[in-house]
Design brief:
Layout (H helix, E strand, L loop, with lengths): L1 H25 L4 H11 L5 H8 L3 H21 L4
Helix pairs in contact: 2-4, 3-4
């Protein structure tokens, strides 16, 4: 129906907007953090795949991702207009 089509299009626009915002915030944080978050979120890489790419253990990667997420959240708070 027309309502479902409109709703679907609205969801696509919202997803694109969220992606653009995510990428903009990524550009504001250190490359070491964005290098981990981008493949995790955008490409859907697993922790194991990222650990192999980074050449670190799974536990080390989890610590790095935790720090990267904290950095990302801080950038969001410091830049509310993004």
């Amino acid at each position: 129906s027309l309502d479902e089509t409109i709703l679907s299009q609205a969801e696509e626009v919202e997803e694109e907007s969220n992606l653009e915002r995510f990428l903009l915030v990524l550009s504001k944080i250190p490359e070491s953090a964005s290098r981990l978050l981008k493949p995790l979120i955008i490409d859907g890489k697993s922790y194991r795949e990222l650990a192999e790419l980074e050449g670190v253990s799974d536990s080390t990667l989890r610590v790095k991702i935790h720090r990267a997420r904290s950095t990302f959240k801080k950038a969001l708070i410091e830049n509310p207009n993004l």
